[in-house]
Specification:
257 residues, alpha+beta, 13-stranded antiparallel beta sheet, 27% helix, globular
């Protein structure tokens, strides 16, 4: 009887204890991955993968002069997923339903650091967003940084201008470059708060899907940006980069359920 009792206890331990142990092991592993920031090699690998994927989408983008930033709307076709790495991928459209920009965003675990890769038909933008600043690279080269206080610096850390996004309660904010107001940019919001358009067929292939949003910004009509004067090439690059950052950073809020 003692032998039978022992075997029943052993089987019970295996049936109950082992699965619980495995669950605890994987939970600890997931939490550890969420807390510990990825090493440099992992970041480099992620960047290479993001670059390759947006380059694959470049042939599907409309041919448009990147100087025409007022063509960019807040219509986005996208998919997202959550986990150790939170991902947000898709296309930004014009008001005429043209695919203008392909983008990929990765947030790591409990960190608020983000990495964004975006492509127009002619340029590649890469952002490393941290609590203190966002670094900007264009076509693989350092271009500048946006400080947390809204001040814009070039690659040599010389101040160029500023935005007042967090200082204004309005739904639009100003971009000031080289001492004068360059443009108005509309604030974006979590795309998941919008109702899905049942008459548009979505083509997302993974993650939680949402259809193209036919929502026009009330302040700037059907554009995310309203240029107020002519822009230099560098100013136009900043205008385009900040619009992408606005759409992708605030296009989905992973802190909300």
């Amino acid at each position: 009887m003692d032998s039978i009792s022992f075997w029943f206890k052993l089987i019970g331990f295996i049936v109950v204890g082992v699965p619980i142990g495995l669950i605890i092991f994987f939970l600890i592993r997931i939490v550890k991955k969420s807390i510990v920031k990825p090493d440099e090699q992992t970041v480099k690998d992620q960047r290479s993968i993001m670059l390759a994927k947006v380059k694959q989408k470049q042939p599907k983008l409309a041919l448009w002069p990147s100087g025409q930033v007022d063509k960019i709307s807040n219509n986005i076709d996208y998919n997202y997923s959550t986990g150790v790495y939170r991902k947000f991928n898709g296309y930004i459209f014009s008001s005429d339903n043209e695919r203008l920009i392909a983008f990929r965003r990765i947030d790591h675990g409990l960190s608020i650091d983000s990495k964004i890769m975006a492509a127009t038909n002619t340029q590649i933008f890469y952002f490393e967003a941290k609590p203190s600043e966002t670094l900007l690279y264009i076509d693989g080269k350092p271009f500048g940084r946006l400080k947390a206080n809204g001040v814009i610096h070039d690659k040599d850390d010389t101040p160029l201008g500023h935005i007042d996004r967090d200082q204004t309660p309005s739904s639009i904010y100003s971009l000031v470059m080289n001492g004068t107001e360059l443009a108005l940019i509309a604030k974006n919001s979590d795309r998941r708060s919008f109702v899905k358009n049942q008459f548009h067929s979505t083509h997302s292939i993974s993650g939680s899907e949402k259809a193209l949003l036919w929502e026009n910004d009330p302040e700037l009509r059907d554009s995310m940006v309203k240029p107020l004067r002519g822009a230099t090439t560098n100013e136009n690059n900043w205008m385009l980069a900040l619009t992408i950052l606005e759409l992708v950073t605030f296009g989905i809020d992973f802190t909300k359920k």
